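Project standup — Tuesday

K.O.: blocked on the structure for the chain from last sprint. Re-posting the sequence here as requested.
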Amino acid sequence: MMLGLLLARTGVDVVVVEKHADFLRDFRGDTIHPSTLDVMDELGVLDEFLKQPHQRVTRLAGRLGDAVVTVADFTHLSTRCKFLAFMPQWEFLNFLAEKARRFPSFALRMQTRVGDLLWDGDRVAGVTAQTPDGPLEIRAGLTIAADGRDSIVREKAALAVEEVGAPMDVLWLRLTKLPDDPHDTFGYIRDGRILALIDRGDYWQCAYVIPKGTLASLQALGLEAFREQIRATVPFLGSRVGELTRWEDIRLLTVRVDRLRRWYRPGLLCIGDAAHAMSPIGGVGINLAIQDAIAAANILGLRLARAGEVRVQDLRRVQRRREFAAKMTQALQVFIGQSVIGRVLSNERSPLLGWLPVLARRLPFLSRIPARLVGLGFRPEHVRS
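H.V.: unblocked you, prediction finished:
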């Protein structure tokens, strides 16, 4: 959606395809980072954007047993907005779609499910799709795969995927938020369990971390045992765990960290999770996807506007521009996953966690480093199209 908006501003004819009738999907990534807020400012829509429903977080803190540690402090960033904004993804997408529709070259097709690629020799020439009115062919000088970690487009393009690995899966659930609850966004680590809370206004969006592939064994213990695990990890939620009345109230996110060796074929480019699936650590997947979109618009926009298609070397430039940031972010996520999360879940001692409260107390400025990595990333992009 972001790339569609940016290309439409450049005068490129764009069709964005969405298989659902609306964007109302629960438990999608909802984190809007300071670098993305800077982009909204560059587009001239930041003040209007911040009128959409959202919560602001200036610091991310974690509770290690009984110790509270500030992990990331965003107030020192050199950005217009020195906070994370947690906004339902459907609000974000609807906002971008509204702004994109101002341009006559932009079209959004809902309830349009892509099924296959169209080919012109060895060049991707568009997609076939199914709509309520029947089959549809959309021919294009450039096809962008922005359809996530389970990308149909990259599968049909037979692009090679390199698995990086992740030691955990995540269970998403929601519990009522009460007025006297703590109002910071916390990650709780206690007795081999990890639970993260995101303030959604009138409820907590909860991410309960489990060792990879262990959902069935957890379910075998029964729902009441799971409720007790949440109660023991975050005691103030104890009065609300009864809201979980069935396993269907809990959504499994199978965490994958992978990447394409090559993000493109002639006439095709993959961005976001379709090019490099991220772990939920830091909530940075959306940030990287948007930065991919901005880089693609900056590099490809004018050529698309003038010629209607791009060269393979242009697509290669996008990958070269963004690949370092994606690889470095994944490497950091894998390090945290193995040295911290994996050890906690297996009840092993993590030296990093043992030192963290001491370092946070003695060297509080260290919290600016994670804030920089989470809030901006390794290579922030700016709108130049």
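K.O.: great, moving the ticket to review. The mean pLDDT is 91. The CA atoms of residues 38 and 80 lie 6 Å apart.
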